[in-house]
Amino acid sequence: MENLSVKKDEVCRVAPKPGSPENQSLPLTLFDLFWLRFPPVERLYFYQTSSTDSVLSQLKTSLSLALQHFPPLAGNLIWSQDSLKPLLSYVQGDAVSVTVAESDADFDHLINSVFLAAKDFSHLVPQHEEEQTLPSTLVPFYDRRVVKDPTGLGELYSKEHQNHDGRAENRSLSIAFFRKAPRATEDLIRGTFEFTRALIERLREDVTTKAVSDSSLHLSTFSLVSAYTWVSMVKAEEIKGGKTCFIFSVDSRSRLDPPIPATYFGNCIVGRVAVAETKGLLSEDGLVVAVSAITEAQRSLEKGVLDGAEDWVSNFLDFSLYDRIYAIAGSHRFEVYDTDFGWGRPKRVEVISIDKTSAISLSDSKNGGGGVEVGLVLKKHYMEAFDALFSSLVH
Questions:
Q1: Which of 89, 147, 277, 281 is buried most deeply by CB count within 10 Å?
Q2: Is the Cα torsion angle 359, 363, 367, 370 positive or negative in sign?
């Protein structure tokens, strides 16, 4: 798809509905600060509707009503000279920027193609600049005091961010890409692979058969899909080095002592790193090796969510020990295909940020049934190799 154009029809600002708090500031906790400079996950939803005028009006109204309950989302992340840690600050007048635009891209092509040039989506992402109540299960919990930090991890992370790159008092809030530079998208291909419930069960049976003596392996949907993707990526990219690692996130709300509410507003995830020898991943038992490494990383949570937390930032800024780093963006538990703004389920959902980060996107399947979608952005010959491996699993 060449020479695609986008015409901006409107750029507006949507503020929280009147009646919202005038000012609200949330100090970042240790969980927020750890992820401070990681690239955000950017997701693109495709819906089909016959009436855009009414949809856009309803969308703006709904956004304003939602922001009334979540005003910090309309605010700004700031790090003033007199503050040790950054703040998420909302003041009256803050608003969310909304861009309405038209594209001449082929909608059916975008939602139905298994493989697309990575750049086919990039032009669709904008470059920014009667009282209703929420159900009690959705009311955001803002009290940051529930995150206990007796050892001062938040202050430690702030200092490490300030001193990163050898610059003292560096209060930059710019994103840090943990590779030499974001990838150029010109020669990259985007692909989506669906792991159906039947395929996942087949992987579970395969691991169970080969690892009959190890009943402690964690054979969840996440572990199996991640392990197969990890092994196939190492094969497709022809990795020859000593070790590769696989990074994923874990929800920590229920794992803290005491646990914090499910409606807590803010980050509360921790990263885990699974490590495996490349030769093991390439062996006949590569899937078992990968599942074992992921299980071991998950089992480290038994020592406590914050075990070793004093080294997290410094370790995540230095991955020189590994020949290739793989990381997950998203989760199949987010149920992104259930996101309905009033005009039905999305026809397609894509994580655009993996163009730059080289992460592996994970989501529920648009076809439902307990399936999982894996999204990749790779050079064409690597994508063809991965597709061949995946096809051998399917058939």
A1: 281
A2: positive
